Amino acid sequence: MKYSVNTYRLYQSEKYFAHTVRIHVRMKDEVDINVLDKAVNSAIIRYPYFAVRVEVDEDGGYVLAPNDQKIVVMPTCDKLPMVGSSSVNDHLLYVDCSGKDIFFNISHTMCGGRGFQPWVMTNIYEYVRQKYNVEPNAPEIRKVDSALLPGETDEPTMDMLTTEEPIYKRKIQKAPVLGMDYLKGVFVPIKRDPNYMVVTIDQHDLLKVSKANDSSVLSLFFVLFARTLDKVFPAKNKVIVGEAAHNPRENLGLVNTHCDFLSHVYVDYDRDKLDDDLEKLGTGTRGQIILQTDPSVSHTQIRELFELYEAIDKQHGLKAKRKYMAKHSLSTGKDAQHGSFIANYTGLMDWGELADYVEFFVYVIEGHFTIEITAMADKIYVGFMQVIKTDKYINLFKEELEKVGIPCTIDGPFPKRLPKHDIPLK
Known about the structure:
This protein is of the alpha+beta class. It is 28% helix and 22% strand. The chain contains nine helices and 14 strands. The strands form three sheets. A seven-stranded mixed beta sheet has the order 9-8-10-12-13-7-14. The chain has a five-stranded mixed beta sheet with strand order 4-5-6-1-11, with helices on one face. The chain has a two-stranded antiparallel sheet with strand order 2-3. Strand 12 (370-376) and strand 13 form a beta hairpin. It is globular and about 55 Å long.
């Protein structure tokens, strides 16, 4: 690949969907925007690879150039500025706040949840430190004056990928979706009302059920979400397909890289078997996730992704590169695979005493029937996203949780505002 892996998502069309992430952190006290401004502009020093602007080179390729302008911190408003715009000093990120809420907006091209979270934690650490004049004990926080981790800016290359035959090949089948709700939400302006809710679960309650049923956190949510949709899908749909993203950084020897390069896991649920024993479903789901995250499988998918990137490199001019991506994108192109729902789990990172100042935090992305799962201290948070405003799905999901002995609380709905990119298009 000629360019950084962190540039290629920029070629994606945003006609319908934004390729950004909005991270919602609710503090326990009102947010002081002046302190937040100082904290954010201190924290960015630790993450120079996020302090960039988009430029176009002589071949029409996107490149990320250093940007030493101030990071914009602003009050939350109805119409948020685009990332990359002059309103946010050309940065691919900015921060807004309102009441007790802090929102971190950032281009998805630069990394994914596991890469964003340390940056968010550093910001919150700096904010708490400066506002309360304390030094919270938080060993995993990357402090402003700490050095980059070994390999933190390293990127994967094609020669790191195995060429062995994958041990598993999924027979592609079209995943059913709730067509009318989804289509109304995407294409009918008066019906479209993107929103999300935050489900908070005691980690002890969830792990107790998970361990008793041979499940991981992600596999348990897969089963419960499939059971939720089983109650609303038409009878003609015989299968429900769960999808999750997987970053194979560990088996590439890039454990500290911030880069986002993903394979995808798909679990097919025969609807006539969704009433089976929870342990049987959990074991089967966990087995599928383990199988499909095997290097021979995930590397094969990443190779296809990198081959797409190399093909984009061969196109001359920005217009041609964007046109090629529109036609061949693995997520939106004609051969794209999708699940009936998406469930991603970032994993647990130790916030230490910093967790005492935070009510919850979730990732907000595009998606219908998409859940982003995060964890902090003794809590699990689920960001439950949809494109129309209704409580029927969240109520069914809550029923499934409580049915297996997992009580929860729900905050929201919150309007899902995802800023798009303001970058050169031709």
